[in-house]
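Following the same procedure, backbone shapes were mapped to integers, yielding the entry below.
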Amino acid sequence: MPFVGNDVVDLKEPGNIGKSKNLRFLKKILTDAEIEWVRKADDPDAALWRFWAAKETAYKVIRKLSGEATFLPRRWPVVLREMHRELHEGTVIVGGQEIFFSCRSDEDYLHCVGSDDADVLRKSIKGVAFLSEDRRRDPSGYGRYCLIKSVAEQGLAERRQIAVRRKKKNGELQPPQLYIADRKSSMDISLSHDGRWIAYVFTA
């Protein structure tokens, strides 16, 4: 079964601005080649967060593949294959496993989606939504609402039949899963939020 992951970064979030100047942080998450890439980029912050989002996305996929995983971003090189102003695509190499990703961005946020299957990644359904002030009290809840709404709009199930649930294993919450009419769906999902944005992706 193919899996998906995603990560969203609010580029206007105060804590995310100027982070590319923090060499200690860069050395924790990027390879030497990636650090050099960030330093030479026209927009170093955006370059940093693209690498971060790709690795975070890969981690979410690997965790599903292996059942458990440790986040070791500096050991996971990003290989860029396509680069345009608003789109970056490539793979993250985690051990011997390739995780395919696609990252889109604008001046406010960037959104990265990934999968262990390139075809599944191309066919996946994704979305980003703005968090108003009142919705920021429960970004996870709003993310689930947006995903469920999108699944229903695709005609895959009636909205009232759809639920997102997370189980615990050894006291730790596992990745969210989609249920339809109280049965676990074969569709895989991923949710993310940061600052003023939530994002999701699910397999078609």
Observations:
- Residues 4-202 form a domain with the Ribosomal Protein L22; Chain A fold (CATH 3.90.470.20).
